[in-house]
Design a protein that fits this description.
This protein is mainly alpha-helical. It has six helices and no strands. The model has no long low-confidence stretch (mean pLDDT about 85).
Length: about 120
């Protein structure tokens, strides 16, 4: 199966379920070709296509870069999903800390909510 064949099998939209039960079996050659394509998409600013390829190939460095770009674009939940899939526990913890700080601030600003 060529890299282009694998790309054609990716769903056109939506989140790919990432599981260790039935990972896509790729030869090292096909995986490397897909990662190169993912990097091309990433460099062109096509973050979603790059994310899908990096998820399929389980390319951690690419997923972290995608997460960084999504975080800068104001999409923290999508960034969290990319960091989680990478896995990158340091960035997951950092992002969760920031998001919980925002929620805490919202709660403090809410009417009728008392803080201790």
């Amino acid at each position: 199966m060529s890299a282009d064949d694998v790309l054609k099998k990716l769903p056109p939209s939506g989140f790919l379920k990432v599981t260790s039960e039935n990972p896509v079996q790729l030869s090292q050659e096909n995986r490397a070709a897909l990662i190169r394509r993912g990097n091309e998409f990433f460099n062109k600013g096509e973050t979603e296509m790059a994310r899908r390829i990096f998820l399929t190939t389980r390319y951690s460095d690419g997923l972290i870069r995608v997460g960084d770009r999504l975080a800068l674009a104001g999409r923290p939940l999508d960034a969290l999903a990319a960091y989680w899939a990478a896995p990158c526990p340091e960035k997951v913890e950092l992002l969760i800390g920031r998001m919980s700080g925002v929620v805490s601030q919202w709660l403090r600003e809410g009417k009728g909510i008392e803080t201790t």
